[in-house]
Amino acid sequence: MTLHEGRTYVVTGADSGIGALTASTLRRRGARVISCGLGPDVDVRADLGDDAGRDQLVDGILRLAPGGIDGLALVAGVATASTEAVRVNYFGTLAVLAGLRTSLRKKPTPRVVVVSSAASLSAGDDAVIRACLRGDEAAAVATAEQLLSSGRGGVLYRSSKIALNRWVRQSATGEDWAGTGVVLNVIAPGIVENDTVRETLSADPPQDSARDRVLSTALPQPLGFPGPVQAIADAISWMISEENSFMAGQIVFVDGGADATLRSDKPYADGVRYGPVATSRMLFWALKARMGPWRRS
């Protein structure tokens, strides 16, 4: 019997990138996977940008898995500088998590992984983060609109991921989660070789807004830039397996060494801020990536 055989998992964002590879990886290892996304080939199609779409996704999953789900990989996210980055990445993710909590509790070893990003190492917008953490979607979106109008929309993606990290740290050990046996953790990938990164770094000249997003969150990744998507799928696969039995509320950076490089042994405070040397180094690696995947030998 394989590690995941007989288990039922839900993967959001399963129509592309990390989500698609996670779903296929779990299936290859014996799991039943309920795939969710916006594409035509998923089991449940729904947009997490509003309440109707969130309810539609939860209702669809509950119909397909009336006996409960063993694991949930919340991969769906928006990386563009838009209010959707806040609506989907934070509020959509938590709405699905809340809607499926009872379904998870029907199983003996339920596991949840929230996909964040190593971009959360960079400083975010405090007003957006605070609004997210108090559950005020209207205020978070209004602040996001102000940032967009002032040309600071690039901070929204990482702000939504910082808020997710903080929510999980605050909640995972509480009665609703660890207290009822639901293991909840975060994975924070570095920059990996998906379609968005390939398009951004291969454009000639690079797309300005996309380039700025990459460089504003770009990470020194000693193990390679961009990194392999399969490494992220494999980590998620283990984190939602029953073998992951004693880890709760952790933010696991699978980032080619970026977190350790940037923070070393320093505690996290207000996010990493880059000086001229670090910025030059990231620009060098981004330019190297435009010439193809790069690995240190």
TrEMBL record:
InterPro entries found in the cross-reference section: NAD(P)-bd_dom_sf, SDR_fam
One Pfam family per UniProt: adh_short
SUPFAM superfamilies registered for this protein in UniProt: NAD(P)-binding Rossmann-fold domains (SSF51735)
Cross-referenced PANTHER family: EG:BACR7A4.14 PROTEIN-RELATED, ZGC:101858
The protein, known as: SDR family oxidoreductase
Source organism of the structure: Brachybacterium tyrofermentans
Lineage summary: Bacteria, Bacillati, Actinomycetota, Actinomycetes, Micrococcales
